[in-house]
Specification:
Among the domains are: about 110 residues; about 140 residues, Histidine kinase-like ATPase, C-terminal domain (Heat Shock Protein 90, 2-Layer Sandwich). With about 425 residues, the protein is of the alpha+beta class. Strand 7 and strand 8 form a beta hairpin. The chain is rod-shaped, with a radius of gyration of 49 Å.
């Protein structure tokens, strides 16, 4: 992963190093002797020109050349041969007399030396003394190239900073628009697909945001569908109650008394439907801390409750001895109770309901099998949907029992699967993952 942290840190330190190095080089180059000797008009090629005059025997022109340098550029030059003898004594005497006559004062100066080899093989030492005022004026007037180099460096740093800034702000703007679309329920995950392919923190953030957006859109869609389904399911019992009440208003006392059991039954159905809807809605709420659940005790309690409702039914449990699971006891009990009640509706009394518990390294599996007619293969995938009832079945129900069971199992991170047994009957299989403490 190309970390955004290292990219920003690297750009920051590169900018510091580049600016520091450039500043150091400019200061060093602009003030070093070689730079001044090669670029100052009073020193550039001066030594070669003076030696050519001196070695050719033109003494007066050589002295005049020295004098011209001093008067024009305020540079005083002393030339020494290999023996240390000064070759410009006469010029020095003339210069001192000329300066005394005009009242010229000596200014603070900088000393620069240059060793040059003449055409005859002899070495000469040129000692220059340049007034600081002259040197400063020349540096200010000829500092264009260093300034250009500094401007170029600043432009490069600006371009790098701009690219780095755009690489951060543009993805953040796309994420901001995605957040806005998510709030307006017009979120499209394709808008962040390209951003999610980045191999840095912003790519990971976009990928996680896509998953979150899909989850939220799915929840919003399921809640809207649940609201529509609830409205549809509540309409029927309410309509029957309204019809019964209208009839009761027109009937005499004897006929009205005969309608009361019907009204009471419809009220019970409506109350049962509302309870199941509330149970389904509460499944998404945050649960208490997980705890260890004794599976054998839980199943035995469910069998005892089933014996009160259907005493003629037989239920066999196998594999649950000393079996435990770490989860939410109330949710798991509600899921298994709904699955067992569903099996009791369709199982013939002559055949037992089989509950098989098996433990694997990946988790726990609980299967509940009845010997009923089973379910057509075309409807198996729809079992567990809100308010879905298999067409043709005459058993009472609202289509929420399996939905509640599936949601409760999914809260544990597991899966609920439905299938028909090869030898007949229906199987509901609960697969619970291995718990993590």
């Amino acid at each position: 992963m190309r970390s955004l942290f290292w990219r920003i840190l690297g750009a920051f330190w590169l900018a510091l190093v580049l600016m520091g190095a450039l500043t150091y080089l400019l200061v060093r180059i602009f003030n070093q002797d070689d730079w001044i000797l090669n670029h100052h008009p009073g020193l550039k090629n001066f030594a070669a020109g003076w030696l050519s005059l001196y070695e050719s025997g033109a003494t007066e022109p050589a002295l005049y050349y020295l004098q011209q340098q001093k008067h024009r550029y305020r540079i005083e030059t002393q030339i020494l041969d290999e023996t240390g003898i000064s070759l410009g004594k006469e010029l020095s005497a003339r210069s001192l007399a000329w300066e005394a006559k005009r009242g010229i004062q000596h200014l603070p100066w900088r000393r620069i030396t240059q060793e040059v080899t003449g055409s005859n093989g002899q070495s000469y030492l040129f000692v220059y003394r340049i007034a600081h005022s002259e040197l400063g004026a020349w540096q200010r007037g000829n500092g264009l190239r260093p300034i250009i180099a500094l401007v170029i460096a600043l432009l490069v740093l600006t371009a790098m900073s701009l690219l780095l800034t755009l690489s951060i702000t543009r993805p953040l703007n796309r994420l901001r628009h995605a957040v806005h679309d998510l709030g307006e329920t017009t979120y499209q995950k394709e808008d962040l697909t390209q951003l999610a392919q980045r191999r840095d923190e912003l790519g990971v953030l976009a990928s996680d945001f896509n998953h979150m957006g899909e989850r939220l859109q799915g929840l919003i869609k399921s809640q809207r569908q649940l609201l529509r389904d609830v409205s549809h399911e509540l309409r029927s019992p309410l309509a029957r109650l309204q019809v019964a009440l209208a009839l009761a208003e027109r009937c005499n006392e004897e006929e009205r008394a005969a309608l009361w059991p019907r009204l009471h039954l419809e009220c019970q159905r409506l109350d049962a439907l509302i309870n199941e809807i509330l149970t389904l809605a509460r499944l998404d709420q945050v649960q208490a801390a997980k705890q260890s659940i004794a599976i054998d005790e839980l199943l035995n309690d469910l069998v005892d409750d089933a014996a009160l409702l259907e005493p003629e039914q037989k239920i066999e449990i196998s594999g649950a001895q000393d079996c435990s699971y770490h989860g939410w006891s109330e949710l798991l009990q509600r899921a298994l109770d709904n699955l067992l009640r569903n099996a009791l509706r369709f199982n013939p009394p002559s055949q037992p309901i089989c509950i098989l518990v098996s433990r694997q390294s990946t988790g726990l599996t609980i299967s509940i099998r009845d010997h009923g007619p089973g379910v057509s293969a075309e409807w198996l995938s729809k079992l567990g949907d809100n308010f879905f009832r298999v067409p043709g079945q005459t058993q009472q129900g609202y289509g929420l029992g399996l939905t509640i069971a599936r949601r409760a199992i999914e809260q544990h991170g597991g899966q609920l699967k439905f299938s028909n047994h090869p030898e007949g009957g229906f199987i509901a299989t609960v697969q619970l993952p291995r718990f993590k403490q």
